[in-house]
What does this fold into?
Amino acid sequence: MNRRRFLAASAVTAGAAAPLAAWALAGGDETREALPAKPIRIPSGGSIRTAFAIGPGVNVIDTAGPWEVFCDTAVVGGPASFDLYTVAASTDPVEGNSGLQIMPRYAYREAPQPHVVVVPAHDAGDPTLAWLRHVSRGAQMIMSVCTGAFVLADTGLLNGMTATTHHDFYDDFESMFPQIELVRGRRFVEHERLATAGGLTSGIDLALRVVERYLGRQGARATARYLEYRA
It folds into this structure.
């Protein structure tokens, strides 16, 4: 079995920590107040193009959690909205974990330049890594969820930074990527243009943090309230 697919599949059965709404805690020590979110400039026209890079074995909640967060910002209104789309090596159907099939809207060669990229756990090949490196030059934020951190780390973009991933794969991540400092026990770890979430539901926390950086704390709180996500 391909190692990336193994990581994605195993994370599903291993379970995850209960959601703690840690988006309000800056991805840091969950006993202290949040650091102020550094705002991200809203693109001209107010449409935040948000690409979900998917492939075989893509984890459902890694994808659907952030997707729901971003689409539900529509209930908040305001100066911007998220234009969501899936992208993969081709537009052929992608089979996710548990058999869910997703039809990518774009192949990498034709996808528009995104402002935000979400990298869920999945079996990523060289075309995915090349596309992530390419769009990183123009993206305002690239975020991974769960063992999607392994995909992002494979691009080299995280070298010299801190990151996190699903707790069952801390040791693997440290041994495979010694040039990245693994942070344990965090819902997410963020930098100005790159961020990594822990396992599964942590992607919701990080997506809310991205919403906060675009739409402010009130926008993120209103979105979480609509989701009935404890914050």
User: Anything to note?
Assistant: Residues 51 and 209 are 17 Å apart (CA to CA).
